[in-house]
Amino acid sequence: MIDIHSHVLPGVDDGASSLEAAKLMLAEAQKAGVRTIIATPHYSRELHENGMIDQVFDAVRNEALRFGIKLLKGYEVKIHHYPGRMPRDFSGLDLAGTKLILLELPLDSVPSYTPDLVYRVQLQGFVPIIAHPERCRRLGRDREMLEELLDAGCLMQIDAASITGVNGGRAKRFARKLIKKGKASFVASDAHRPYGYSVWYTKAYKKVVKWVGQDKADDLFRNNAADIFGYVDEGNAVDVS
Q1: What is the mean pLDDT of residues 183-193?
Q2: Could you tell me the residue ranges of all domains in the chain?
Q3: How far apart are CA 128 and CA 126, in angstroms?
Q4: How far apart are CA 111 and CA 58, in angstroms?
Q5: Mean pLDDT, rounded, for 182-187
Q6: CA–CA separation, 197 and 149 (whole Å)
Q7: H/E/C letters for each residue in 166-216?
Q8: What residues contact 61, with CB distance under 8 A and at least 6 apart?
Q9: pLDDT above 80 (res 235)
Q10: How far apart are CA 10 and CA 143, in angstroms?
Q11: Mean pLDDT, range 34-48, rounded to an integer
């Protein structure tokens, strides 16, 4: 399995609280069959610029290797209500050196400038991935907005916890609809704690197999992520085997 959204880095956001907690997450990810994880802490200009993310990432990457897991670096960039809080340049904020940018919508709304932001991201040569759209209540009510994002070229990443019902019935129904209609490209753990892998991730895979069959489940949990890394130049391709 390839997990493109995980908060396994300790002490940089609301994910793992310590290196020991990160090790527990890695152990459970290994048991769940995950072999590649993109660590995606919430983007902060200060943490990005002062090098703290790099230091923490290097420590956790060494631990991940002991579990047979390849750890790659990325960010989850929250779309704030105030556009001035967004980065102007998305270079270095992508997933694992690819041209993929993980964007998180507020849970209650879609800021009015979001289409313009998507366009700006694309002008910089990146492909936007919308993190857990099923959790955004506005998208659940406004399917035209969802279609606008899809038509603009955004990819959709569903949270395992939504599939298992942890995020509520509305999010689960929306996640199922997106998956069954082929509008989701990835399922990720969005893990903040070990049970994000030991319980939610494994149960989500089994649930998706029931919804759409094993082949499509494998696409969502592994194959699409492997294929999408083709955006990387051949000489720098990410090994996701």
Answers
A1: 97
A2: 2-236
A3: 6
A4: 35
A5: 97
A6: 29
A7: CCCHHHHHHHHHHHHCCCCCEEECCECCCHHHHHHHHHHHHHHHHHHCHHH
A8: 71
A9: no
A10: 36
A11: 92
Domain 2-236 has CATH 3.40.50.1240: no
Q: Between 84 and 235, name the one with better pLDDT.
A: 84
Q: How far is 66 from 46, CA to CA, in rounded Å?
A: 30
Quote the percentage of the chain above a pLDDT of 70: 95
Mean pLDDT of the chain: 92
Strand partners, 3: 37
Q: What angle do CA 29, 30, 36 make, to 5 degrees?
A: 75
Distances 197 to 51, 86, 231 between C-alpha atoms, Å = 28, 30, 27
- What is the 3-state composition of the chain as percent helix, strand, coil, each rounded to the nearest 5? 50, 15, 35
Q: What is the mean pLDDT of residues 161-180?
A: 97
Predicted structure pTM score: 0.92
74 and 64 in contact (C-beta within 8 Å)?
no
